[in-house]
Amino acid sequence: MRIVVVGATGNVGTSVVDELARRPEVTEVVAVARRAPAVDWPPSVRFVAADVATDDLEPVLAGADTVVHLAWLFQPSHDPLLTWRVNAVGSARVFEAAAAAGVGAVVYSSSVGAYSPAPDRTVDETWPTHSIPTAAYGREKAYVERVLDAFEARHPEIRVVRLRPAFIFKRTAGPEQRRLFAGPLLPRAVLRRGVPVLPLPAGLRFQALHSTDAARAFAVAATGDARGAFNIAAEPVIDAAALASVVGARPVEVPPRALRAALATAWHLRLVPTQPALYDLALGLPLLDTTRAATELGWRPTVSAVDALAEAVAGMAEGAGEDTPPLAADGVRGRAREVATGVGSRP
């Protein structure tokens, strides 16, 4: 099999490429991203530079049995038109190029963030995927779900799989996730020594999984015959106590509105990159029922949600990373550039 991975150099993409390269049924992996990595991939992996928003993608996808589409911009949160062009329009361009190239299957990375709010429910794959309109991430994920609905109707000959993962973590993605969500003002030393007090909103809870477990799900979907949507997440559900324990802090419950107001102020002052609407989205997320992934994909996580989160926090504290542009290790120059270019203002 020849499999093209679009968005191959990020948190999930690097793990997916590694997983596919180990599988005997996969003869070639084409790793696609905007910027070239300095990774020593095995001979079966070939890198191609391409931008999903602007480049001609049909030649890149030609001859592929399956396209795994992972490319996504979380930032710049202050430029929603740019993230829309890359995430929403770019995804539609990937799907149409796949059809034009005669690709047999498309595997797309949707998200728990695509689901309509249901903070007190555990949902299966039939729950509506309308997210919330105010959060750019959710709005774009919901739109791409509708794009795929239309794509499947027009191209019933193409096998389409949508994986809807919870938060995905690994050690070497820690610095990237610090840049995307915490910003340059979070000191590594604080994470190394432990945070004395951690203010958290009442009712906080979320699911997570390790990047290598997510990669196995994508690999099974890419090489098998499954169709449709699959939730993927690991146990246990992470609540305020579990999160505080991972960072060595004492949790302090704060009214959600007060914490949101503080986040909104920090975002408008360019102190953090996280859009306040993303906070709203996170508090309204449902929990994922992963029964279908277990029964139809044979997928079960091997790393607990808490251990996956702990790895990412350790990676932030250490400044760990990989030799790809998205996963570049932490450093003083990099943090200075984040401040100089406007926190949350550049991809």
Report on this model:
There is one protein chain. With about 350 residues, this protein is of the alpha/beta class. Helices cover about 40% and strands about 20% of the residues. It contains 13 helices and 14 strands. It has a seven-stranded parallel sheet, sandwiched between helices. Strands 8-10-12 form a three-stranded mixed sheet. α1 packs across α7, α3 runs parallel beside α4 (about 135-155) and α5 packs across α12 (about 305-320). The longest helix has 21 residues, at about 80-100. The protein is globular, with a radius of gyration of 19 Å. The two termini are about 35 Å apart. The mean pLDDT is about 95.
Structure summary, number of beta strands: 14
Q: Structural class, from helix and strand content? A: alpha/beta
User: H/E order of the elements?
Assistant: EHEEHEHEEHEEHHEEHEEHEHHEHHH
Q: In percent, how much strand structure appears in the residues? A: 15-25%
Structural Rg: 19 Å
**Assembly level:** single chain
Largest sheet: 7 strands, parallel
| Number of helices, counting only DSSP H or I runs of 4 residues or more | 13
Separation of the first and last Cα atoms: 33 Å
Strand order of the largest sheet: 3-2-1-4-5-7-11
Global geometry: globular
Residues in helix, % = 40-55%
Q: What low-confidence regions span 5 or more consecutive residues with pLDDT below 50?
A: none
Provide mean pLDDT, rounded.
96
